[in-house]
Design brief:
There is one protein chain. The protein is an alpha/beta fold. An eight-stranded mixed sheet has the order 3-2-1-4-10-6-11-13, sandwiched between helices.
Length: about 325
């Protein structure tokens, strides 16, 4: 009787022990899931600004003891709302020191536009910064105006941008930091490539490759000036050293000034450009790239420039600069 009672007691103790172990294991699992849930919430909260748009990005700080920031070189044509939106945004970027607006319209900018832009530059600048804002008024409408030499520039770095696209300040400042590590290179966000023509049917030895060619091959040889950093000296070289026949070609065809700048920089450096990863926001309607025959015209430009320079100056590369601070896998 005593032995049976002892056996029952041991079985009871074992059941309680198993129940306790099971409960403890369940508690650990629940605690682990709870910790994972809290971690996920914290991570999402820290990344929420990046999901809300280009106006709410964190950016690295820049030493303001010297004016070693960059000049915003923006090309515009009768899209005043887009110009206002762009200037209002970029004046909040910490590295911006000056704004140079290329104006090729027949009429000068209105007083109301001047007032708005100057007010934006003044009100959005933080930490006691002063942002210079100037208009380059051109009598003649030419795509070459985009790369006219800037007299008495206050920065070495130029950030060339179209008025219909926006990049977050974080992306701009990252690309600027990449440029500072290689100031002779073109650094930007929109890569393109030249391809060797394997077909005997086409009379051109080279073909202009758009985004899908870059994506397919993982290679590029140009950075479009619609969103790129380069040294201010290249504006002087474009204005004063570019072959006159090439400038006339760009003016007459109203296309390919960006390819011409890529050829010029590559000819001077013998090195490829640098593609920087960044978010892009389209704020305007489609441009000439959406028109029929655009790719064929660009192919013609590439081959014409090879003839002008006497060789293919563009250098292909597969390198891409990525900000590891905002990347999970790299």
């Amino acid at each position: 009787m005593v032995a049976r009672t002892s056996l029952i007691s041991r079985r009871t103790v074992q059941k309680f022990r198993q129940a306790a172990i099971s409960a403890a294991g369940s508690l650990k699992i629940k605690l682990l899931l709870f910790c994972c849930f809290i971690f996920t919430l914290t991570l999402l909260a820290s990344r929420t600004p990046s999901f809300l748009g280009w106006g709410q990005q964190s950016v690295p700080t820049l030493d303001r003891n010297s004016r070693k920031g960059y000049t915003l070189l923006i090309n515009t044509w009768k899209r005043y709302d887009l110009l206002k939106q762009s200037i209002s945004h970029y004046t909040s970027c910490p590295g911006l020191d000056s704004i140079h607006i290329v104006w090729s319209e027949p009429d000068p900018p209105s007083d109301s536009l001047l007032k708005f832009l100057n007010q934006a530059a003044k009100s959005n600048a933080k930490d006691g910064r002063h942002i210079d804002l100037t208009f380059d008024i051109n009598k003649e409408d030419s795509l070459n105006n985009r790369f006219k030499e800037i007299k008495n520039p206050i920065t070495d770095a130029v950030f060339s941008i179209d008025d219909d696209i926006i990049f977050p300040c974080s992306s701009v400042e990252f690309a600027f930091s990449v440029w500072r590590s290689a100031p002779d290179a073109m650094v930007g966000f929109v890569p393109r490539i030249h391809l060797i023509n394997q077909s005997k049917e086409n009379r051109y030895p080279y073909i202009y490759g758009g985004w899908w060619a870059v994506w397919w091959t993982g290679t590029y040889s140009m950075i479009l000036s619609k969103a790129s950093f380069f040294h201010v000296k290249y504006l002087r070289m474009y204005t004063n050293e570019m072959p006159a026949s090439l400038l006339e070609y760009v003016k007459r065809n109203r296309n390919c000034e960006d390819i011409a700048m890529s050829f010029l920089v590559a000819n001077a450096t013998g090195a490829p450009p640098i593609w920087a990863k960044g978010k892009i926001y389209e704020i305007g309607s489609t441009g000439i790239s959406s028109l029929g025959g655009h790719s064929n015209k660009r192919t013609e430009c590439v081959n014409r420039f090879v003839s002008e320079f006497g060789r293919m100056t563009l250098v292909p590369t597969t390198v891409k600069a990525v900000d590891s601070r905002g990347t999970w896998f790299w």
